[in-house]
């Protein structure tokens, strides 16, 4: 888990409550270089670059290959931004302002209630024009090919789209709860572990809602497979049997399966007859009990493999589930 700014960036470009902090354009360049090349950010002729941006701006690599930039800014000059973006899946959510952007020959007007998901399968010219006085409160996610391969099992961004082609895109409406969470984190400095984990959580929630909103298409095999109960169950069972599920949040599982968290919870309950959280906890404890039959496996190791950070909490849950402490290494058959 990364949860750190890319190399070359300061730990944060914001400070809590610093609503009118000047953002130096040099910081913008350094931030952009983590994901783009040939980046330019220039004020219109005759306007000063000093104090051209005020507010908060931060970029975090919340997981290896998954980046989220939170913008809470106002422009005090007419700005033209140009860059060359590397292949990736881009997700943009705006809740204040209406920035106009271009990816290659395509032009998009971003605005509240109308998020964008676009697939870039090759390096793409990007442009953004921002008039003086404009606000932009937004979250921009970059899902690199490495992240897409590891988490979604695809090698290019277009493979998750209804139409598999470069620059394929669709718009979707983020939930009120998601926008409120993004707004909350855009105001804060991610200096503590709890806040950085929160940013990771909300980034995964963005991905989950975005993928769940994909338009259906008859020849979209990825979409069909997610509607196929046996397919998503088989993938989830693999993660359970390997123990990987112990290290995944529900938002992360949902994102991997291309569903929203609510869809996943509802389908799990329909398929297994129990709530997802309770049943996964039971199954992880059952796996831990089986592991403890090997005397070389310590209680602490079994706790970790069951997803518990505290051996004491693990022991309490284990006793509640099986009636004896894990130190007794009971033979559990169900």
Automatic annotation (TrEMBL):
Limits of the HTH araC/xylS-type domain: 234-332
InterPro entries noted in UniProt: Homeodomain-like_sf, HTH_AraC, HTH_AraC-typ_CS, PchR_regulatory_protein
A molecular function (GO) term: DNA-binding transcription factor activity
Assigned keywords, A-Z: DNA-binding, Transcription, Transcription regulation
Highest taxon above the source species: Bacteria
Keyword Transcription regulation part of the UniProt annotation: yes
Name recorded for this polypeptide: Helix-turn-helix transcriptional regulator
Organism (species): Cobetia crustatorum
Lineage: Bacteria, Pseudomonadati, Pseudomonadota, Gammaproteobacteria, Oceanospirillales
């Amino acid at each position: 888990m990364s949860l750190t700014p890319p190399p070359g960036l300061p730990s944060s470009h914001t400070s809590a409550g610093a609503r009118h902090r000047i953002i130096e354009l040099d910081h913008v360049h350094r931030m952009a270089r983590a994901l783009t090349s040939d980046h330019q950010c220039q004020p219109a002729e005759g306007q000063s670059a000093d104090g051209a941006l005020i507010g908060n701006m931060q970029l975090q690599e919340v997981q290896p290959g998954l980046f989220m930039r939170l913008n809470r800014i106002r422009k005090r000059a007419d700005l033209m931004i140009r860059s060359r973006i590397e292949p990736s899946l881009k997700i943009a959510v705006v809740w204040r302002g209406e920035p106009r952007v271009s990816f290659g020959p395509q032009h998009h007007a971003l605005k509240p209630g109308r998020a964008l998901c676009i697939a870039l399968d090759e390096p793409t010219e990007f442009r953004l024009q921002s008039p003086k006085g404009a606000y932009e409160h937004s979250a921009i996610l970059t899902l690199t090919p490495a992240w897409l391969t590891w988490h979604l099992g695809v090698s290019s961004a277009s493979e998750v789209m209804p139409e598999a082609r470069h620059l394929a895109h669709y718009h979707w409406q983020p939930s009120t709860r998601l926008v409120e969470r993004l707004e909350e984190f855009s105001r804060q400095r991610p200096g503590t572990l709890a806040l950085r984990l929160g940013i990771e959580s909300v980034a995964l929630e963005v991905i989950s809602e975005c993928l769940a909103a994909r338009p259906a298409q008859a020849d979209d095999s990825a979409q069909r497979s997610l509607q196929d109960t046996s397919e998503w169950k088989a993938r989830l069972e693999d993660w359970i049997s390997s123990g990987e599920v112990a290290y995944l949040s529900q938002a992360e599982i949902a994102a991997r399966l291309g569903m929203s968290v609510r869809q996943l919870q509802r389908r799990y309950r329909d398929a297994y007859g129990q709530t997802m959280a309770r049943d996964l906890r039971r199954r992880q404890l059952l796996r831990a009990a089986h592991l403890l039959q090997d005397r070389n496996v310590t209680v602490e190791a079994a706790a970790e493999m069951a997803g518990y950070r505290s051996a004491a909490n693990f022991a309490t849950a284990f006793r509640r589930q099986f009636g004896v402490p894990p130190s007794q290494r009971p033979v559990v058959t169900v």
